[in-house]
Structure formats: structure tokens, C-alpha cells
Amino acid sequence: MSRERPPLVRTDRVRFAETDAQGIVFYGAFFTWLDEALNAALREAGYDYDRMHADGWTTHVVHTELDYHAPAEYGDVVEQRFAVTDVGESSIHTDYEARNEATGETLASGSTVYAAADVETGESVRVPDDFRAAFGLLDGE
Predict the structure, then answer these.
(1) Per residue in 71-110, pLDDT tens?
(2) What family is this protein classified in (predicted)?
(3) Is residue 3 part of a domain?
């Protein structure tokens, strides 16, 4: 993770439905877990999508990447670390890492960039200071 402050940490147990014909986690499951980690981080910060929409804005994924380091199998517990690492004028940058909880081995790592957009028009908007403050990313913090 590129930021000093501690990331959100959550776990998921690999379900059979998340595995492929080789018996390992299908790569797309990591994107679902990443999205769940984002939602958990928003809730923990007190700035979830309901609040975002009430404030008139939302986010769109504009870039995401994951590197796969090792497989996970049915029944493994996957520890996920997720952090908001930077907030630009209209963008939110995050880092994600998934580890096997039992072994500590890194399974996947990556990042996502979200664009802030008006909830009605989809036009680019500035990320509100309240959001920045919720993640400790106001200038001078």
C-alpha cells in the first residue's frame, strides 16, 4: 500500500462458486472483493454511496489493474487491504492487496482510479472536502 495510514482490512472465505474448472479462484472474483472493500471503507469513513448520492455526486471506475501473484482455493480465507491513497481534483486513487490469511502470501495487488461525477448528469465534479476529510486527505492533514 502506498499510504502510511493503516488500510481497511476485511476478509472473505472463498466460496465454491468463486472457483473455476482448475479449482482456483476465478480472477474476476478479486474485482468483486475489491468493490466490497471499497464499500466497507466508505461505510467505515461515514461516507457511503447513500451520502454521496444525497450530496449530488457518485464515482465511476476509469482505471483498474490487478497483478496476480498466487492462487487462492475453495475454503481459503482471503485478507484484503484497501486504502484511499490520494484524492485529486475530481479523482480518487486506491490501492488493494489480497493475501492468504493462513500463510500471509500475497495473492493479488493493484489499484483503481475513480472519477467523481454529478449523479444526475454524469459530468465531472470536484471531490467534496467532506469526503477528503473522511479519509484524512484534506490539504494540511
Answers:
(1) 999 999 999 999 999 999 999 999 999 999 999 999 999 9
(2) Belongs to the 4-hydroxybenzoyl-CoA thioesterase family.
(3) no
